Amino acid sequence: MQPATPRDPPRQTLELPGVTLSYTDEGTGPVVVGLSGLPGAHHHWRWLGTPLFEWARFVRLELPGFGDSRMQGAVKPLSLRARGELIARVLEALKLSRVHLVGHSMGGMHALETAVHHAGLVRSVTLVACPGFTAHYPENAWRLVAGLFELAPLQRPLASLSRLAFKRLGFSVRDMHDEGALRTVIDAAHTSFDRHRKNIAEVCVPVLQSWADDDELVPRRFHEGLARQRPDWATLRFSDGGHDVQKFHGVELAEAMRQLAGGADGELVTRR
Fold first, then answer.
1. Tens digits of per-residue pLDDT, 257-268?
2. What values do phi and psi take at 62, rounded to 5?
């Protein structure tokens, strides 16, 4: 099942010291904040936006490197901790609290980071094709490549090459500028799975884990392993949908999120 008309609301911008963040904001009701993965921008949520609009206020946050979001100067790593702190700063600046976070791919890792270390801001977390306890890519090789990407004189030519490589691999490069092309490599290399494992163990808010068995980027065994570690989490599993469950199963995912949010916040009223 898939919404017939994907939603693409206009971007807004938020200026914080040293960084410009772009986001979209639509609807009324409980606040759901979408966190894209690497690479990822607000359009990755366009199929989920339609059913969420029925009952929620949906804010799609674009982190540095995508859309109109940028950090000043040469691209330096943003760790998992730094991304969680940045997300918390944005929520506070937008006067958003008790939000329901939904994170796609590595955005799920960022959602858990925020929920654990900024617990007062988060009511629930939905993970969409989120990585498991261990990296699904060769970490050592990735770190070696990232070391070259961190050299300021090489960043401009490497950004063009990496954007072309991501496109050929089937990733969307829409709304990806040079910083995003570099961050997809650099920030992934500086993502601590040790910290991620601790966050998985420590998160206390309600969590919904969603994935598709034919996910080729984060294989099925990683999702199943994560589900075994936290049997108290709600799960939503599909046979198909690949790495983009929110695109192919947006209606079902939005309904599961509505039930999760209802459990966290009480009864929800659906607009008709």
1. 999 999 877 555
2. -105, 120
